Amino acid sequence: MFKPLSGWLLTPELYLGVLFLCTLPSTVQSSIAFTSMARGNVPAAVCSASLSSILGVFLTPLLLTALAGTSGGIHDPLHAIGGIMLQLLVPFVAGHLLRPWIAGWVERQRALLRYTDQATILLVVYSAFGEAVTEGLWSKTPLLSLLAVAVVAAVLLGIAMPLITFIARRLRFNREDEIAIVFCGSKKSLATGVPIAKVLFAGGSLGAIVLPVMIYHQIQLIVCGVIAQRYAKRAP
């Protein structure tokens, strides 16, 4: 869809970043938060967002290889999946296996761990933004290309949310399930995307590749906040 923009409005790195954005899994925290705000099916949002995050470990490298081919720089998708599993899936599994021993302590420290969790995500985003600045992204990337990335991100979200809403209603999901489907189906995870990008594009122009994800993430937070409030106002 956006192939004609490559090399014209979008640099090759930014175009690869757009493809990478399209292959990323859904967010977990914000999908659940917006579903709750809109009075949707929160358990369904937890399950679907978590499943999307787990499947993204395996599907993102494979999908990106299929979309970008050799230009994506991924010569061994299976090796990349192993690296992503080590960073994302192994800690997740370890936490669940240790739950019988640490669940009580975690429950007592819920308030502290919430801030720790949020700080970790903030550091991930900050590191990606810092690397982009260090690489000289803002000086190397034309202003027109930056604007084009923002427009592309807005168009992707503008297509995804109405389409997902239409499909959910055509399949006759109830209101609560529709809310969970809309928010989980249209979101893209920056917290997951940055670690995956560091594995897939090690030694590449990481800042430019992650930039579309960062811009999309900001747009989706604003748009989903507005839509969640509208759902909440129409709630019975």
From TrEMBL:
Coiled coil: none annotated. It comes from the Eukaryota. InterPro entries: Na+/solute_symporter_sf, Put_Na-Bile_cotransptr. Keywords: Membrane, Transmembrane, Transmembrane helix. The keyword Membrane applies. The chain crosses the membrane at residues 14-34, 46-68, 80-98, 119-138, 144-168, 189-209, 215-232. GO terms for cellular component: plasma membrane. Pfam families: SBF_like. This is Bile acid:sodium symporter. It comes from Rhizopus delemar.
